[in-house]
């Protein structure tokens, strides 16, 4: 077995475990897979397709791409790749760039506003394409970095959910890469030579400083705590409200 096959199998195993743990995919699902052109979304699509071919339940995949309208965004490279690989796909052109420029208020995060717009387009597309689920490429590192960011900068205990009802109340958002380390995705992306396309956002690299700090923090702690990522993701499944400042401080009443 080659190195590429080994890393692919390892990621596939992690995704399969996430699907089983959280009930992410069910019989008859029609799943819209968000494809941005980055390593995470390409990995997600390839792994889900491999699982689809041998899964005991039947489900469909449709790759969807939302072009934000930023100058230099090479959606043609994404479409060409999806076509060569034989995936069903839909490319949607938007003018998110103009909407952001016209409506962004002072003090509001450019990235957060752009993300909300993109989610809205994804929900609309999923409904138009008759998909009941939307798969996103957030991985293990995204989950624990978001947990730390919320604790350090927002004063709340929150991260992401592997499975949740979308904001529109109609679709289910799933994140099958929840157990997959970013380092494994980087290795697979390089081995499979994914045609990486950057978002061409005018503020890219300027607003994610705090997330980079979280990456560095985790990397430094990992030197002495090798399993820190798995420990932190397990903590998100092992929440004990009684030991938090939630007001649930009393012993539970024992029923007779």
Give structural notes.
This protein has 256 residues and is α/β, with parallel strands linked by helices. It has a single domain, classed as HUPs (Rossmann fold), CATH 3.40.50. It has helices spanning 3-22, 39-54, 75-85, 96-103, 110-128, 140-154, 182-192, 209-222, 228-235; strands spanning 30-34, 60-67, 89-93, 133-135, 163-165, 172-174. Strands 3-2-1-4-6-5 form a six-stranded mixed beta sheet, with helices on both faces. Helix 2 links the parallel strand 1 (30-34) and strand 2. Helix 6 (140-154) packs across helix 8 (209-222) and helix 6 (140-154) crosses helix 9. The N and C termini lie far apart (59 Å).
Number of helices: 9
Distance between the termini: 59 Å
Shape: globular
> What share of the residues does DSSP label as strand, in percent?
5-15%
Which structural class is indicated by helix and strand composition?
alpha/beta
Widest sheet, order of strands: 3-2-1-4-6-5
Would you give the CATH topology? Rossmann fold
Strand tally? 6
The ordered H/E elements are HEHEHEHHEHEEHHH
Give Rg in angstroms: 19 Å
Major β-sheet profile: 6 strands, mixed
CATH architecture designation = 3-Layer(aba) Sandwich
